[in-house]
Design goal:
Two copies of one chain form a homodimer.
Chain A: H1 4-17, H2 36-45, H3 47-54, H4 59-70, H5 80-94, H6 100-108, H7 112-121, H8 148-154, H9 158-165, H10 170-177, H11 180-191, H12 196-210, H13 214-219, H14 222-236, H15 242-252, H16 257-272
Helix pairs in contact in A: 1-2, 1-3, 1-5, 1-16, 2-4, 3-4, 4-5, 4-7, 5-6, 5-10, 5-16, 9-10, 11-12, 11-16, 12-14, 12-16
């Protein structure tokens, strides 16, 4: 039996190995400066943080440690979003509570300390984030540890921070809504058969057609995100070729990373529920 | 900085991700019942055993634990040989002694207990091994723990066992000879540039041309092993296409697994010496 920590690491590796996963690094496609091997290292070295969460430690500190380990490679941000999505799931699973209400419990128990640790995690890698709204400058995540006093003054927990980001960040939305898309992805992965990496790729395409990828909206613009969603649906309808679509997105540097993160989360849930590999 | 344990796991993952690696599972090729995902799980779950070795524990027990973890997936034998090659290297590196003499010291210190643990490791997965020579039936590795009394009666250490296998097993030869091919592979990987997985694939082809793969000789016959070596040289000379050769070997189920194991060992040495990923 794999441990919860091992399943979290394996979920990260299975996610990046599914292909085609249009726009993201996968087994067949990579960027010159962000390669498959960087994701391998990220998954191996995220372990200490994931293990903290599996042992019941605070979500914020566990996440910060996971990101510190993940960033021990030269590709930059490989799995920041996936780890953010995974940490409460790992914590819930460790409490034998891996279900929507279980994740809500974990999230609702986060504190200001968790928020401070979350901000510190941004110091390890560059993460694409939107400009903060008017008056929110002191809480810009890019400030990292420098935002600590603003967080403490306003008494913001990590759940509060996620609540404020939910409309423009698909991971924050999962955090505050009980992980609906993640659990749906797990159900789909479990309901299919064949190689798990193929099922991961199929789940990715499904998710991509259902909602716009918030990372693409941030990295590019809402129009691009809408285009990607529409064209993923065309791929599913057999009107576009998946491989050609994948090649084009790499060419245009469009990475639906949030959708990939949801697949990693779905894989973790499925593995914890007994999915055979 | 990655730990020694993390580098050992990463070496396993980088090895399987190099492509083309004619005949073996890689990022682009897999068998229906032995897939890329099985190697991912094997690398993640071998950790506890590798960590024992990195902490200075006995080589035999560390290896047995690594194999027990590795085998927690449904594909069967993914990294038995690679772990056997890696364990003394990990132990030597933990002693700040990762060089040919250092591996000789680790090997020379193995005991009968190490041999017993090594035999037990064969109980976790089916490993292709040659028929034992006349009179060696009681020491057939396929007997697993049942060979314990024969090992104890004859007072055989794990180094003794390897010495007896060196002529027909390329991993045993590395054990008793100070890992010459492994360190050479590390040198080559370090001397090139570009993606590490590409360098791993290049090192694999080099090694394949230099000596016959003992796993192929065992799994098939010496003639097949000789053919593979000759044709690998033709690929390097530009007379054969690497991808077509790779496809043919998968079709014929010819897996130069020992050569792949040497690449994993070379990657580990290079990573420990500071190779950037």
């Amino acid at each position: 039996m794999r441990t919860t920590t091992e399943n979290a690491q394996l979920a990260l590796l299975l996610e990046v190995s599914g292909t085609p996963k249009p726009g993201n690094v996968d087994r067949h496609r990579e960027y010159d400066d962000l390669r498959f091997e960087h994701f391998l290292s990220g998954a191996v070295c995220a372990r200490d943080g994931l293990r903290l969460a599996a042992g019941g430690a605070e979500v914020g500190e566990s996440f910060r440690r996971a990101v510190a380990g993940m960033s021990q490679q030269s590709g930059g941000n490989t799995q920041f979003g996936a780890l953010l999505l995974l940490t409460p799931l790992v914590r819930a699973s460790a409490a034998q509570d891996l279900n929507p209400d279980g994740t809500r419990r974990v999230v609702s128990e986060t504190t200001v300390e968790d928020a401070v640790a979350f901000y510190k995690a941004f110091e390890y890698v560059d993460v694409a984030v939107p400009e903060p709204p008017e008056g929110m400058g002191p809480l810009d995540v890019r400030r990292g540890a420098a935002a600590e006093s603003a967080l403490r003054e306003r008494g913001l927990t990590l759940a509060d921070v996620m609540e404020r980001s939910r409309d423009h960040d698909g991971i924050a939305a999962e955090w505050v809504d009980g992980y609906p898309r993640t659990f749906e992805a797990a159900d789909r992965i479990e309901s299919e058969s064949g190689p798990v990496t193929d099922r991961a790729a199929a789940a990715y395409l499904d998710l991509l057609t259902e909602e716009v990828d918030t990372f693409v909206a941030t990295q590019h613009d809402p129009e691009t995100a809408a285009e990607i969603r529409r064209r993923a649906a065309a791929v599913q309808a057999g009107e576009e070729d998946a491989e050609a679509f994948a090649a084009e997105l790499v060419e245009r540097n469009i990475n639906p990373g949030t959708t990939a993160d949801l697949v990693a989360g779905g894989l973790f849930v499925a593995l914890e529920r007994g999915l055979e590999v």
